[in-house]
Design a protein that fits this description.
single chain; 4-stranded parallel β-sheet; 4 helices; 4 strands
């Protein structure tokens, strides 16, 4: 099971719940957090499910195919996906630079579609 944005917030909660239910969870985020490390440790101690961290920037649309291949090679078949990752910027959309708008669309819209 892959959970994008699984290093903190709602994504981390999903990771913890799935691992607690016995699933092997692959948390995907740009960087690992202390909370995610703790969740992996808890899963090991409880011997229910497992939590693994795989770093990836979901804005790299062109590399998503290779990312999935490498995850499948390392962990085997994938049986679920939670597209939780998302990003935002402060301010009104009409006042954002084109590069920020493009980044929002890549991470929040295109990446989940391609990953699915």
């Amino acid at each position: 099971m892959i959970v994008t944005g699984g290093s903190r917030g709602l994504g981390l909660g999903i990771v913890r719940n799935l691992a607690g239910a016995g699933y092997r969870v692959i948390a995907v985020a740009r960087k690992e957090t202390d909370q995610l490390t703790s969740a992996a440790e808890e899963a090991r101690n409880q011997q229910r499910g497992a939590v693994h961290f795989v770093p990836f920037d979901l804005g790299n649309i062109e590399e998503l195919g290779q990312f999935v291949k490498s995850v499948r090679k390392e962990f085997g078949a994938l049986h679920g996906l939670v597209n939780n990752a998302g990003m935002s910027f402060d301010g009104a959309l009409p006042l954002m630079s084109n590069s920020k708008i493009e980044q929002l669309v890549r991470v929040n819209t295109i990446s989940p579609i391609v990953l699915t």
